[in-house]
Known about the structure:
By secondary structure, the protein is α+β, with helices and mostly antiparallel strands. It folds into 2 domains: 11-97, Roll (duf1285 like fold), CATH 3.10.540; 102-202, duf1285 protein (duf1285 protein fold), CATH 2.30.270.10. Helix content is 18%, strand content 41%. It is built from 4 helices and 15 strands. The protein has helices spanning 11-26, 67-74, 162-169, 197-201, and strands at residues 43-51, 57-59, 62-63, 77-80, 83-87, 92-97, 102-110, 117-122, 127-129, 136-140, 146-153, 156-160, 173-177, 180-187, 190-196. The strands form 3 sheets. The protein has a 6-stranded mixed sheet with strand order 3-2-1-6-5-4. Strands 9-8-7-12-11-10 form a 6-stranded mixed sheet. The chain has a 3-stranded antiparallel sheet with strand order 13-14-15. It is elongated, with a radius of gyration of 19 Å. The chain starts with 10 loop residues before the first helix and ends in a 5-residue tail after the last helix. InterPro entries: DUF1285, DUF1285_beta_roll_sf, DUF1285_C, DUF1285_N. This is DUF1285 domain-containing protein.
Amino acid sequence: MPHAVQPGFSMxxxxxxxxxxxxxxxxxxxxxxxxxxxxxxxxCGDIDMRIAADGTWFYLxxxxxRPALVKLxxxxxxxxxGAYVLVTPVEKVGITVxxxxxxxxxMAVDGEGEGRxxxxxxxxxxxxSAGPGHAIRFxxxxxxxxxxxxxxxxxxxxxxxxxxxxxxLALGEVREVNGLPMFGVAxxxxxxxxxxxxxxxxxxxx
Length: 206
């Protein structure tokens, strides 16, 4: 089946989008993340790039097999009005994200209780510690379980992988929040409620 090309792009333009992005990004110098929040280039349409729910990046329907390339593109990812875009100094293009753009693949625990430190590493080697500025949130999974996320930067989040989720929930405890006993996790001086404690008692949360 031929790959779908976004309106306004010919197949040739879609194929060359990767080259244009790479050329622009190679012009950047220095260490650390690029200042994408300060860039305001014109929007050049959508390209056939997708981040699957499991964190795999696809281009023209094919997985991007080079981790360094994925890491490069992730460094210029931004969210504008709910849409995900890759931003360079000269252009901005839209991509598709099925769930969260990052995956939290590793967690390190230091300490206990309110003062506990939880550090998460993403699949592209971002490292963040839960707390003010890097919140943990929980969403309901399709079958009634829990999907935790950790805030990475700006409006970008990482979904905690299944294996790490088990370790995270093992740190859970029950605290009263607004008069209601809630099951959640404490880290960085903040308690992050997940579900009412009654659901844990009933075995409804996974």
